[in-house]
Each structure stands twice: as C-alpha cells, then as structure tokens.
C-alpha cells in the first residue's frame, strides 16, 4: 500500500461529502483557519499541567494559546471557570463525574431513547465511575423532563447529581427547576451541552450556567464549529475539583494542535456566532414545518417542532429509522437513525425515528428557502415519490451552490483535501 493510495481514499471521502447533504446533528465543518492549526508543530507536543505550571519544558507558547482559549470560552459560555483540556465530550463527562460524585452514588440522567447520551449511562462513563443511573420521568408530548414527577422521585432516591442535556435535544431543559430540586437535597447539576454549545455561545439557547447549573460539559464540534475536542466549565468554587478531575484524572496529552484550532473557532464565534446560531434555529424550524407539511410525522408539533438545530421524525410508518436512513444515504442525504422516547434500548438497530441537524448546511450558507428544497428531497425519498437516483442528482446540484464555508473571516472552499 502506498501513501498515495491512502490519500486516494481520503480524496474519495471528501468528494462524497462535497456532493452530499451533511445532516448529522453532531457534526460540523471547520474553516481553513482552524484546519491550518492541525498541521502545525503543536500536534507533536505535550503540555501536561496548568498554564504556567507545566510538567514539561518548552510550553511557553502553548501557555499563550491555552490562555487565549480559556478566556474566549469563558466569555462565550459566560462561566467563571473553563478548562479547555478535555479531548472529547465523553472525556469531559468523565471529568464531571470524577469531580462531582463518588462511586456508588445515584445520578439522574435521561434514558437514551429520551435523548440521553451513552456516556451518561452505566455502559459508559457513568458506569466506569461506579454510578447508579436512574432515568428522569420524561414527557414525550413536550419532549422534555417531567419536573413534578422528577421532584417526587428525587425526594425518594436522593441522587447526588442531575445530568441535563443530551443527544436528542429539541427544547431547552428545565435547568432552573432541576437546580432548585438539587439544592434541596444537596446535589449538583451537570449540563451536557455538547449538542447546543454553538447555540449557547451564539445566544440562541438557554445559558445553563446562568440558569443554575454547577458544571457545563460540551464537545466543541457539533453546533460549535470547532475542532473535535471539548470544554468543561464550572462555578468558581468547583474549579479546583474540576481541574484535578481533568488532569491527572482523565487527560494527559491534550492535543495542542486542535487546542489552537479551538482559539480560532472561538474567535469566529465572537464575530459571527450570533448570526450563525440565529440562522441555524430558523433553518431547523423551517425544515421541521416543511417536513410536516409534506406529510411526515415530526416530533414536538405543539411546541413549534424545535428550538435547537435538530428535527426528529417518527418514520415507523415508512419502515423505521434504519431503513429510511440507509435509503436517504443512497440519495447522498446523510443523517442517522435515532431512538425515540417510546422505543426500548433493544430497538437500537431499528429505532422509530431519524434525527436531522441543520448546523453544517447553515454554516455553508443555506437559509429557509433551501430548507424547503431539502424537505421536499427528504420526503421524495421517504415517501417513495421519486427515484433515489433522481433525488441524488438534485442533491448534487443544490450542493454545488453551497460549497463554501461561511461565518468566518474569508469564505473558502469547504470540501478540499489540503496537502502540505
Ligand atoms: C450529549 C452528548 N454528550 C457527549 C457526546 C460525546 O462527545 P464526543 O464525541 O466529543 O466524545 C455526544 C456525542 O454525540 C453527545 O451527543
């Protein structure tokens, strides 16, 4: 196998994305300014420890970068303390569990079908910490936590931690109400804002720190269009516990090249984040409305379908999420099958729904009128109105008009395989 052969696979992947509609709710595209950082020498170095107190020499410029990242992220999420070292959202959650709980403690989290992430579960980070996970009572009508039932259950079970936020996340969570319940039983609140960080930073979603959460964890590459890594933010009095949970708790190398990329993405957010986040939510709402108009069963109808970047569609009538997502992929429409609140975890292979995220197409400059087109293309495939081949052709021509990264300092080609 040659280097060129590997590059050829990457080239094909890039070409495929160039010709596709990327609608996976947990992804985004970075600008070339962010990507330039990835290939810098920073990607060869270590900087264990805190800014100015490293375990290795040679870190003075890394200190400068990390300080920029900390200050920018503090400003964007309005938190008194931010640690930017977690290398992914799961790692940030592990740090949160380390900082806020002891093995054997009970925690409340959303079940996966109700929107919880696997890392909140016994099979993953929460289980590794030895936590007992209890699920919030969930109201599928409003796609949200049932606060009254949660209060009753919390008085009985006395959890040490309430995890909010999740992966299927249409509407803001009751952070204020849950924080009040937590305060009564001396528990803490950790908000996993991985999906919505870009909307929080852009001022288009609830700010969990302002509403009463103790800790905010978040990936920086979903609605926040930065590199694949994460942050953990907290109240000042928890700073020491959180920092120790990150290092030496769950991180050694913290991937300094993508840390520099995070600085650039945060700068882009300061300048363009408001417009991008506003358009993202507008696009999600419009796509949901149009899909409903086309005859699909979109969740959250009574509440305007969504207040985030996501749209959830119940496709049981059309054969279930697995079949539908695969068929859409053949038309170059990339999204994922998704469990919905009434599903059992055993339905993971063929859940009731699909989940759609509009953040990446928004970053490419799409607006409401393109959402109308996308809704039709999706419905054409799901409802067997037109052949997959015909829809794919339309997807490719739509995508040709939206091939540039926007909301950055200088528009440029989005899908390019850059070589040094
Ligand atoms: C709510 C939530 N938390 C954490 C994660 C994990 O993030 P990462 O992939 O950065 O580890 C995800 C991933 O999709 C998520 O949806």
UniProtKB/TrEMBL annotation:
Residues recorded as bearing N6-(pyridoxal phosphate)lysine in the entry: 222
Site note Plays an important role in substrate specificity applies to: 221
Give the matching SUPFAM superfamilies.
PLP-dependent transferases (SSF53383)
Residue span, Serine hydroxymethyltransferase-like domain: 4-378
Q: Which domain of life is it from?
A: Archaea
Q: Which cofactor does it need?
A: pyridoxal 5'-phosphate
Chief localization: cytoplasm
This entry's Gene Ontology molecular function terms read: glycine hydroxymethyltransferase activity; methyltransferase activity; pyridoxal phosphate binding
Which reaction(s) are listed as its catalytic activity?
5,10-methylenetetrahydromethanopterin + glycine + H2O = 5,6,7,8-tetrahydromethanopterin + L-serine
Keyword list, A-Z:
Amino-acid biosynthesis, Cytoplasm, Methyltransferase, One-carbon metabolism, Pyridoxal phosphate, Transferase
Q: Which family does it belong to?
A: Belongs to the SHMT family.
Q: How does it assemble?
A: Homodimer.
Q: What is this protein called?
A: Serine hydroxymethyltransferase
Organism field: Ferroglobus placidus (strain DSM 10642 / AEDII12DO)
